[in-house]
Amino acid sequence: MAENAALRALRLLDLVPYVLRNPGISIKELADHFEVSRDELIKDLNLLFMCGLPGYTPLELIDLSFEDGVVEVRDPQNLKAPRNFNESEALALRIALAALQEQTPKNHPSFRVIQSLRQKIADSFVSDIPPHAIDFVADKEEILINTIKKAIEEEKDLEIEYLNPVRDSLTVREVTPLSLSLSRIQTTLISYCHTAQGERSFHLKSMQSARLIERQPREIESHNESHTTTTVQLHILKRDTQFFLNLQENLQPTNSQSDNHVYDLPVYQPEWIIRSTISQPDTVIVLKPEAFRSAVIERCTTALEQYAVIG
C-alpha cells in the first residue's frame, strides 16, 4: 500500500533539520530514526536534492550529500528549524506533559524541566484553552501501592515525600518497606524509617510521592516498642466518626464490656494525639497520661483566653 503523500511530506520537512543537528549520521541510523527502509530513505534524499526555493537553480536548491552511507546538509535553504506543532499536536503534548508532571516526584531533577516545558508550549500558542484548564489527576494511591509492592518484591528501599500533619511540614525519608496494611478506611505502609531509626507507619493519603532506591547495607536497630511509643487512654464519645474508623484497628478496649468506650492507643508522637483531641472536642477525651490531659486543657484554655482578648 502506497504511503500517504502528506505523511511523506511531513517526514521530508523533518529530515533536513534533523540531519543538521546530527552531522555525519549514517543512512541506516537515519532510516531507523524515521522508521522507514533504507531504500525509502534514499528516495526521500533524492527528492530533497531536487527541492529548494523558487528559481530552482543550483544556487536555490537544498545542498546535501549522502555518499559513502553518510548524510550531510551544507545549505538547507529555509528548512533550518523543525516544523512547528499545530494546535492539535500542541494540545496533545500539553496533556501528556500534565500527566507526566503529576506522576513525577517534586524532588526529581526532571520535575522543573517538565514544568518549564509545559509553560513554554502554553505560551507559544494562542488558544481558547487556559493553562490551568489542562490538568491530570492520577490514581495516586494505586501508583504508590504498585511502587511499594515492587520495592518489597525486589528488596529495595524507598525515598518518600511525607506530609507530616503534626508538624505541618513536608519531609523526605528513606525507608525499608516491610508490609502494606489495606483496609476499607485507609492504606498504611509499615516500614523501618532510617530517618527516625525505628519502625513507623505512613498513611498513603499523606504520602506525596515514593521512588525506588537501592538498599544500602546498614544495620537496622531493634527498638522495644515501650521505648518508642506511649500508651494513651482515650474516652471515645462517638464511634461513627472518621477519627474512630481510622484508628479502630489500633484501639484496644480497656475491658471486655461491649458498651465500654474507653480504649488504649499506642502513640508514637504525643503532639499528634494532643492536636487530634483539641480538633475534635465532641469526639474524644484524653484520660491518661495526666501530662497529655493537662496539655490539652492548657492549650484549650489559652485559645479561649486569646479569643476573649480579640473580643
Quick recap:
The protein is 40% helix and 23% strand.
Can you tag this structure with a few keywords?
four-stranded antiparallel beta sheet, 311 residues, alpha+beta, SH3 type barrels, Arc Repressor Mutant, subunit A, 10 helices, elongated, single chain
SSE diagram, text form:
Layout: H1 5-21, E1 25-26, H2 27-33, H3 38-49, E2 63-65, E3 70-75, H4 87-102, H5 109-124, H6 140-153, E4 157-164, E5 169-182, E6 187-193, E7 198-203, E8 207-213, H7 225-228, E9 230-236, H8 242-247, E10 252-253, E11 262-267, H9 270-279, E12 284-288, H10 290-310
Antiparallel strand pairs: 1-3, 2-3, 4-5, 4-8, 5-6, 6-7, 9-11, 9-12, 10-11
Helix pairs in contact: 2-3, 4-5, 9-10
Describe the structure in your own words.
With about 300 residues, the protein is α+β, with helices and mostly antiparallel strands. Helix content is about 40%, strand content about 25%. It has four domains: about 5-75, Arc Repressor Mutant, subunit A (Orthogonal Bundle); about 85-135, no CATH class; about 140-215, SH3 type barrels (Roll); about 230-310, no CATH class. The strands form three sheets. A five-stranded antiparallel β-sheet has the order 7-6-5-4-8, with helices on one face. A four-stranded antiparallel β-sheet has the order 10-11-9-12. The chain has a three-stranded antiparallel β-sheet with strand order 1-3-2. Helix 9 packs across helix 10 (about 290-310). The longest helix has 21 residues, at about 290-310. It starts with a helix and ends with a helix.
